[in-house]
Amino acid sequence: MIHSAVLVRPPRRDSDDNIQAVYTEEQALEGSIRIRCHHFLFVTLRCTDIRRLYDVFATVKHLACVGSLEQLYAFDYRSDTADDAKAVEYDAHAEFRRMGVGVAGGVGQHWRVSEINREFQLCATYPPVVAAPARISDTTLTYAARYRSKARLPVLSYLHPNGVSMTRSSQPMVGLKQARSVQDEKLVEAIVATSEPTGMVPRFRNERNNIIIDARPTTNAVVNRAIGAGSENMDHYRQCRKVYLGIDNIHVMRDALNRLADAAVDAADVSATASDLGNAEPAGMMARIQSSRSSWLSHLQNILVGVKTIVEAIDAGHHVLVHCSDGWDRTAQLTSLAQLCLDPYYRTIEGFAVLVEKEWVSFGHQFTLRNGHLGHPDRFTVVRAGRKRVPEHSEDIEDIDRDVGETESADDGAQTGSSIFGRFATRAFRGVQSRISSAIQTASDNLDDIDYTDPFFAEYPELHPDYVRPVDPSTGTSAQQKRGFRLGRTKHDRETSPVFQQFLDCVYQLWVQHPTMFEFNERFLLDLFYHGHAAQFGTFLGNNMQERTAIQMQERTQRVWSVVGHDPQLYRNAVYQGDEAKREQRVILPEPRFVQYWSAMFSCHDPAFAKCTEPATRDELIVETASNDPTVRTDPDELTVKPTNLTDSDLALSSNVWSLDA
Questions:
Q1: pLDDT (tens digit, 9 = 90+) per residue, 507-521?
Q2: Which end of the chain has fewer CB atoms at under 10 Å, N or C?
Q3: How many Cα atoms are found within 13 Å in the side-chain-facing hemisphere of 580?
Q4: CB within 8 Å of 618: residues ≥ 6 apart
Q5: Which pLDDT score is estimated for 475?
Q6: How confident is the model at residue 116 (pLDDT cuts 50, 70, 90)?
Q7: Could you tell me which residues are beta bridge partners of residue 45?
Q8: What are the backbone angles phi and psi of residue 561, rounded to the nearest 5°?
Q9: Are the C-beta atoms of residues 420 and 231 closer than 8 Å to each other?
């Protein structure tokens, strides 16, 4: 559960090489260990024995940063209370049957179940079993997969009782040459035709009612063409129009959460100081929180606006294809939240477990990378007492040193410049400049600590900023440790992002807006948030099904749903309407204008915090159709969701901060 930690060293008294002798007890108490946990628990440790303090920090870093999944707690944990026999079992075939896939005479008669990916040969990050249009052969699926990033071709995510579908995929590999794939186009056309009685689209029907959702900002999608990806050319996709949702990437979301966490710690420090001085409410505390520019609620609003667009389209009888870059972050958020709104089954405890297993676990959300289960040594820093703490969002949040795709794509929009690529170059230059400035500032703040002659680093070399863990000789790579100045953070640290946390936060917003429509209560969501980081169960470990299968995750670990099965009443919503809710209101809609901070998730129980909202900053939806198409009829009022300015509330934050003195 440890996110990061800072060892604050007391000021140096003299140049004595004995690090235990250079500090008195009073000076030793100026040092501390400040720990931030993923579930917003902040702990400060102090000790009169400075050597003991250093040993604790070195031990915490060693235990929090592991080399493989098998070293995590889940592979050793066994509970008598967790009952795997009562855990929810996800069966892809059973779930497809429940939706009616392949049932003769039903809404899913033009769909079929394919096991083309049973050995993960088609797509390493897709489940072994997928659903595709019945008239599309496995050969066509194989060719269509080559046109999509990471081979994540369009497959069925949800089939609505009215016969229309929601499918998901990754971005097409369009590139600067505007490449196209006939097989991909036929696949999308066949998906649209599944709701027709004959399974074929009428030849002369030209309405573009079906939607291809691109979750990214428009500029990001266009810039990705420079690296061989991009977005669909709508001239080649009949019956469809495209909608850009403008949801920011994982780096922006990580920065938003870090800003909020930093503001929480700063506010708590100010509050503690004011309390010592006898002030009931320190001046500027609420301003400190509001000026953090986190925009956390604005990001939630953008996601819910996209969910509302999808739900309204499917409920009106239009097919929807959803993708972002690689299709395992923003896509999973949108498809799962839309299904939660469309189908009452997913609003039950059992159905929600099936939804998470289907849309997140089986479709390859990278839990290990996004949640940072293996730990990141760069997050364990050493500073001198009195030095300014460097906030976690000081690094450039839109690092351009990335691979193709959402994981490491050029998915960063620029705001200035004369052209798209000019703006991207400007953003790239600013990013490098920001990283250099941040690194130089950090080096300046800790100039004494970077000296290898410092007796502290002589005895604790693993705590040095340039320390590189020895490589296992069995890998065949050099085990020689490198010295020198490292610019920025490791790649894996840049891959962390609160994607699943945002999903749970959006579920909470729906739960608040429709309190009688969910079988589960708030504690259910809080426990899932906790176990998403705790690595106590195997459900949220691993990056895809292939990886989980290789290490026998299901056989060697327990599932988080076993806890739910042991005591389901603990997670049951007392005001749930059950079957009555299913009959009277099958579909629910999110209200993006009314979102609030989830105080329990942020370990803050101040009512003012829960009532605080942020003004909507961008709810604009950009719609693209085929060029020069006279059959397209667009109403500007239908294409733009106008943001509503919400009233700012005073924000008071009581962080969950512990201070332990030894």
A1: 999 999 999 999 999
A2: C
A3: 4
A4: 246, 298, 302, 643
A5: 43
A6: very high
A7: 33, 660
A8: -70, -15
A9: no
Residue type, 346: Y
In contact, 22 and 12? CB cutoff 8 Å: yes
1: pLDDT strictly greater than 80:
yes
What tokens were used for 397?
A: 């949040």
Task: Give the span between the Cα atoms of 10 and 578, in whole angstroms.
Answer: 59
pLDDT tens digits, one per residue of 161-183? 999 999 999 999 999 999 999 99
Is the pLDDT at 285 greater than 80? The verdict is no
Residues 65, 71, 75, 80: what is their CA dihedral angle, to the nearest 10 degrees? -60
Q: From 600, 433, 491, select the one nearest 41 (Cα to Cα).
A: 600
Closest CA to 595 of 168, 177, 210, 303: 303
Strands 210-214 and 320-323: parallel
- Structure confidence by residue, pLDDT tens digits, 588-620: 999 999 998 888 888 654 444 545 554 333 333
Per-residue CA distances from 30 to 8, 159, 385, 403 (Å):
8, 61, 7, 44
For residues 147 and 171, what is the distance between their CA atoms, to the nearest angstrom?
9
Under 8 Å between Cβ of 209 and 238: no
pLDDT over threshold 90, residue 445: no
Helix (H), strand (E), coil (C) string for 380-437: EEEEECCCCCCCCCCCCCCCCCCCCCCCCCCCCCCCCCCCHHHHHHHHHHHHHHHHHH
Catalytic choice (123, 324, 604, 612) = 324
Burial class (CB in 10 A: 0-12, 13-18, 19+), 131: buried
Structure tokens at 251: 């780096």
Residue with the two structure tokens 């708590």: 268
- 420 within 8 A of 219, measured Cβ to Cβ: yes
- Residue type at 643 in one-letter notation: P
Please give the share of the chain, as a percent, with pLDDT higher than 70.
Answer: 67
60-69, 163-172, 437-446: least confidently modelled range: 437-446
Active site residue 324: yes
- Tokens 């500090």 — which residue? 23
Ramachandran quadrant class, 293 (left: phi over 0; alpha: psi -120 to 50; beta: rest):
left
410: which 2 tokens? 């050029």
Q: How many C-beta atoms surround the C-beta of residue 472 within 10 A?
A: 10
| Torsion, Cα of 522, 528, 533, 534 (10° steps) | 100
pLDDT over threshold 70, residue 562? yes
- Euclidean distance between CA atoms 169 and 188, whole angstroms: 11
Average pLDDT for 201-222: 84
Nearest to 159 by CA among 202, 111, 196, 199: 111
Share of the chain above pLDDT 90, in %: 51
Give the residue among 430, 413, 493, 512 at the shortest CA–CA distance from 215: 413
State the pLDDT at residue 407: 45
**What is the CB neighbour count within 10 angstroms for residue 442?**
18
Average per-residue pLDDT for the chain: 78
Give the start-end residues of each E strand in 355-491: 380-384
- Cα–Cα distance for residue pair 611/543, rounded to 1 Å: 36
Provide the residue type at 598 as one letter: W
AA letter at 448? D
